[in-house]
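call fold(seq) -> tokens
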Amino acid sequence: MQPVSEDGRPIPWRTPISAPYFDAARVGRLILQRCPRDGFFAHPRQRCPTCLGDDWEWQELSGRGTLHSFTIDRVGHDPALAKECPLVVILVDLEEGPRIASRLVACPPEEVRIGMPVEVAFEDLGPESLIHFVRCDSGSV
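ret:
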């Protein structure tokens, strides 16, 4: 059974592969795996999909990026997140190149625009896990 936070939201699984990500998030740092041969970025996974290597390096990223795309969940398709609707689900192009999926906070849905600057922040969901979310570059959480 997947762990849940005190308010009922699902918590991502912490695995040996993802542990460095969660450890860095705990101190406010965004890191992703990067293949040392082809530069492919990934969010914790076993092998590089380009070369099948498994000797990832962890690279710290600024967390700053540009909103690439978004959708707004006004219904609450995930019952655990329904109370947070409207929920803005986004794709962000980070300054260093990789694209990540996240949710946008600290920005009214009617003000969301493709191309707007955003930055990653973290939310503590318990002793073993944090999740990243994204906020408007000038927003505060």
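DSSP finds one helix and eight strands in the chain.
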